[in-house]
Design brief:
The complex is a heterodimer. Chain A is mostly beta strands. Chain A contains no helices and eleven strands. In chain A, the strands form two sheets. In chain A, strands 2, 4, 5, 6, 9, 10 and 11 form a seven-stranded mixed sheet that branches. In chain A, strands 1-3-8-7 form a four-stranded antiparallel sheet, with no helix packed on it. The radius of gyration of chain A is 13 Å and the shape is globular. In chain B, strands 2, 4, 5, 9, 10 and 11 form a six-stranded mixed sheet that branches. The chains are: A mainly beta, B mainly beta.
Chain lengths: ~120, ~110
């Protein structure tokens, strides 16, 4: 299966600052990556679809100016949470789908705490 | 877009009993239905999946059934063990690499010994 690496695993930041989360596809080229957010005891909610070399597609209700996505290469997508607030505290997790059998693989997730 | 409903939200069983979790989906174009197990603070782990060209798939104690006409699919775990305790998510999507999985709300399974 594919290997997806996400960094950092956890981060604590102050309100008003920005945080960047990296998602790397280590063993295959991913033209598309997906970003999810998971609040405690809730499901994985799709935030956006990251497309290599073009703009990301955001789900309804997700502010594209707050959650900046960059997919500059076939192996790296980044999610930047700008001007973070305590309500942005959550578990952020990226995913790619294998182009062969289309199974989905997930990064380790990033626990963001905004204080 | 796709909408996935999952029931029950919590399920408690005795060790050795069977557990069944049910999901329905809305988009008739969906043709790939994976099930994930997630432990606290960890990434989801695929436990079984099914594609719409089959109605049932089994892997040891785990089975999944799919009814395309009714747009629902179910996870069956037999001979449950305490280590099966976790949160289980169903998902639905189109069988293309560029399409995201849409998840159900999850079921917290507790297996007591």
């Amino acid at each position: 299966g594919a290997v997806v690496s996400q960094h950092p695993s956890w981060v604590i930041c102050k309100s008003g600052t920005s945080v960047k989360i990296e998602c790397r596809s280590l063993d295959f080229q991913a033209t598309t990556m997906f970003w999810y957010r998971q609040f405690p005891k809730q499901s994985l909610m799709l935030m956006a679809t990251s497309n290599e070399g073009s703009k990301a597609t955001y789900e309804q209700g997700v502010e594209k100016d707050k959650f900046l996505i960059n997919h500059a290469s076939l192996t790296l997508s980044t999610l930047t949470v700008t001007s973070a607030h305590p309500e942005d505290s959550s578990f952020y997790i990226c995913s790619v789908r294998n182009t062969g059998n289309t199974e989905a693989f997930f990064g380790q997730g990033t626990r963001l705490t905004v204080v | 877009g796709e909408n996935v409903e999952q029931h029950p939200s919590t399920l408690s069983v005795q060790e050795g009993d069977s557990a069944v979790i049910k999901c329905t989906y809305s988009d008739s174009a969906s043709n790939y239905f994976p099930w994930y197990k997630q432990e606290l603070g960890k990434r989801p782990q695929l436990i079984i999946d099914i594609r719409s060209n089959v109605g049932e798939k089994k892997d040891q104690r785990i089975a999944v059934t799919l009814n395309k006409t009714a747009k629902h699919f179910s996870l069956h775990i037999t001979e449950t063990q305490p280590e099966d305790s976790a949160v289980y998510f169903c998902a639905a999507t189109i069988n293309q690499a560029g399409t995201a999985l849409i998840f159900g709300k999850g079921t917290t399974l507790s297996v007591s010994s």
